[in-house]
Design a protein that fits this description.
The chain is α/β, with parallel strands linked by helices and 198 residues long. The chain has one domain: 3-Layer(aba) Sandwich (Rossmann fold). The chain contains seven helices and ten strands. 38% of the residues are buried. The model has no long low-confidence stretch (mean pLDDT 96).
Length: 198
Amino acid sequence: MTKYVVNSGNVSGNSEKAKTFFAEVLKDLGNEPKILLCFFAVGREYWETKFAEKSELLPSFFPQNIHPKFIMAMPDSFERQCADSDVIYIQGGDDHLVQYWLGQFDLQKSWDGKVVATSSASSHALSKEFWTCDWRKCKEGMGILPIKFLAHYKSEYGATDPRGPIDWKRAYKELEEYGGKSLPIYALKEGEFEVFES
C-alpha cells in the first residue's frame, strides 16, 4: 500500500501548515527517514541548487528528533532510489515537465509501500484531471489518484500576471464540468493537503 500526501502548494509559505504537512509525511517512519527529493518539475539546471536549499530548509519543519537523510532524485537511478527511500517528495513547478519525467516509470510499482508527498504541479500529476494556474485551463493528469485537483485555490497566485488575477469560481466550475463529472474535486488552499492510500 502506498500513502499519498497531496499538498496544494507553497508548503513552506506557512510554517505551521508546513509542520502539520511534514508531521503527516513522516509519521511512523522512525528518527532517520530516507527522503528522496525530486525536482523533476523544474529545469535540470536547478536541481542541485534546489536540493541544497531544501536539504537545509525542510528539517526546520520536521518534528523534533528527526534526522533525515536526503537524496536527490535522478532519472537514470530513480527506481532504485525509490526502493531505497522511505519518502518520495516531489516538488512543484511545471505541469508538463513533471509528467514527462514521471511518465517514464512504473510509479505504482516503484512507490509500493512508500510515502509519496507532492506539491502543486506534482499533485496535478497524480490526479486524473486538474485545473492549472499556469495555463488557466483543465488538463489531464496521470490518473494515479481518481480525483480532480485545483492547487493554490483562492490564493494570490498569478496576481501580477499580465492576464490578470485568477477567477477562482470560474476555475472551479471549469474543472467541475471537465471530463469525469463523478470524480471528487479537491480544491485546496495553499499549505492544505489530503491523504490517500492505495
